[in-house]
Structure formats: C-alpha cells, structure tokens
C-alpha cells in the first residue's frame, strides 16, 4: 500500500491514519451494543433503538451518525437509522458475521495493549504483560468473559476467513485429522463436512473443549469427532495423518513454535502432514498491509509472528520437518510440512 493513497495533503493523510483507531472503536462499540441485530427488522428511530440496546439516546445518536459515514448504517429524517449490507455483517445471525471479532478488538485486552507498541519497539518484548500486569493467557484465565469474547472471535474468523483455505486444500487423503488448538471446532467441522470418510480429533484446553459439542452437532459430524483436552506444549494426540494448526503458530516466538511443531512431528503417522493455516507474509517487499498489521498485533499481544514461507521452513527444519508446499486460500494459506 503506498504511503499516500489520494490527493489529500500529507498532514491530513497523517491525521486520517492516526485517528483510524477511533473508527475501530466506534465499530466495536456498535458491535458490542448489538445495534445491527436490532435493525434486522428494518429502520428504527434512535430513541427506540437506544431503549432496545440499553443506551442513552442522544449519545447513541452521535455514535450512529459517525458509523453512518463509515457505511455501516443509513440515516434518514427524524434520526431514523437502518442497516446497510456492510452493517449486516455486524449482525449475530448473519452468515457473514464479524460481530465478535469487532467486539474483541474493542476490549481492553487488545485495544489497550496497542498503547505499548512504541515500548515494544524499544525492548523487543510484547506489550501485554507491561500494560495488563500479566501474560495474555493468564489474563484470559482470570477474565473468563474476555476469554469468551476472544474464543467467539476466533470461531467467527475461522468461519469467515479460514474456511476459504480449507476449500483450497484437498483433505481427502487423510483418514484422521487432529485440529490442534482448534477452539470450538468450526474449522474441523468444515473439514469433516468436506470429506465424509475422515475422522477428527479436536484438541484444546479443557475450558475451551467444554463449549465445542454443539458445533459438530449442527454440522452433522459429531459421530466422527473425538474431543481431547491437553497442553500442546507437552504432547498432542498420536497417530493421525494430518495435524492442522489454524492461527496457532503465529501466537508464539520461534522457540515455543518449534516445540509445538516437534510434538506434532513425533505424534503423526510416518507419512503424515503438518498443516499450518496462517496469513503468510510475502518473502519479498510486496505490499500486504493487513497481514503486516496482524503481525504487529501478534507482537504486542504475545510476542508472536506472521511468517513468510521461508521463515516457516526454518521453523520446520528445527522440528524435524520440511516445507512441502504452500496452498493459497484467500487471506490465509495452507503451509504444508512433511517429515524431513
């Protein structure tokens, strides 16, 4: 992305860039209030809408008129608002819903952490612990409501973005697939729907696994799924043909990433595969603004990385694996590794 994308003078372009977080906060607030859900049946006056979402009407109006300028809603005479096609993606029941992801980036766990980005540049250390007084995973253990928003956001992201990568990759050769750190099972359910003969294991923390069953029942694949809980730094379920890690390795620096990958290498069948579903960086200097911002988010939250194919291969070699191929699937790709 070029540094300047329009004829706006540089000083005002900087103003636009510097205040982009305000736009994000407004979108997050609208998502958290559930405004789009309450506009699903049609236009509503702001006073009526405020009562429905539990907000102060004059204050809510100020939020909605700003969001209307972003294209989320349309305002008509009498402070009446209706949703747009874009705004409908903030509805909980929309097949395109990104409501929970918008809520997550508005939580203190994510938003406040970015205030430490400059310090991270100076120290090389993630900002989360300095800003919040503890590491991110400890914060989730102590703040279950925030953890739920995060888990729901990741489930939503899997449904909207990572599913494209699943469509791009052929899972038919695998009789058994382990989804390592698979959350509530959205990704694994999509794989099993695509390949009726395959069986799956969902592997994640005990508190996450507890909320996973309904996803498989809704998808009609619960008879082919086994739920296992544990710690992927210690071990993963053994004997599968494929170990899928969707946006897991990007959470971690190199040493812990190698440990997770080495555990998968030890557990997999001799001809098995390790499949990373990740937003990959270009190996060169090509623009990839969203991926590079995700990389910064991983940096401040946990010290993690988005990586290029070459960087993934370097990790694989330390874990007894080697890069086989990269299959592009929209924002995310499937990075395939085999035994070295």
Write the layout of secondary structure elements.
Blueprint: H1 10-18, H2 20-33, H3 35-38, E1 44-45, H4 46-53, H5 57-70, E2 73-76, E3 80-83, H6 85-88, H7 99-105, H8 108-111, H9 117-123, H10 128-132, H11 136-142, H12 144-168, E4 176-180, H13 186-194, E5 199-204, H14 206-209, H15 213-219, E6 225-229, E7 242-246, H16 254-267, E8 273-278, H17 289-302, H18 309-318, E9 321-329, E10 332-339
Parallel strand pairs: 4-5, 4-7, 5-6, 7-8
Antiparallel strand pairs: 1-3, 2-3, 8-10, 9-10
Helix pairs in contact: 2-5, 2-7, 4-5, 7-12, 11-12, 12-13
Shape: globular
Order of helices and strands: HHHEHHEEHHHHHHHEHEHHEEHEHHEE
Task: Report the structural category.
Answer: alpha/beta
Please report which band the strand proportion falls in: under 5%, 5-15%, 15-25%, 25-35%, 35-45% or over 45%.
15-25%
Number of separate domains? 2
CATH overall fold name of the largest domain? Rossmann fold
CATH architect. name of the largest domain: 3-Layer(aba) Sandwich
Count of distinct strands: 10
What is the helix content?
40-55%
Strand order of the largest sheet: 6-5-4-7-8-10-9
Alpha plus pi helix count: 18
Question: Which radius of gyration do the C-alpha atoms yield?
Answer: 21 Å
What does this structure look like?
It is a single chain. With 340 residues, the chain is of the alpha/beta class. The protein has two domains: 81 residues, Winged helix-like DNA-binding domain superfamily/Winged helix DNA-binding domain (Arc Repressor Mutant, subunit A); 224 residues, Vaccinia Virus protein VP39 (Rossmann fold, 3-Layer(aba) Sandwich), CATH 3.40.50. Helices cover 49% and strands 16% of the residues. Strands 6-5-4-7-8-10-9 form a seven-stranded mixed beta sheet, sandwiched between helices. Strands 1-3-2 form a three-stranded antiparallel beta sheet. The longest helix has 25 residues. It starts with 9 loop residues before the first helix and ends with a strand. The model has no long low-confidence stretch (mean pLDDT 94).
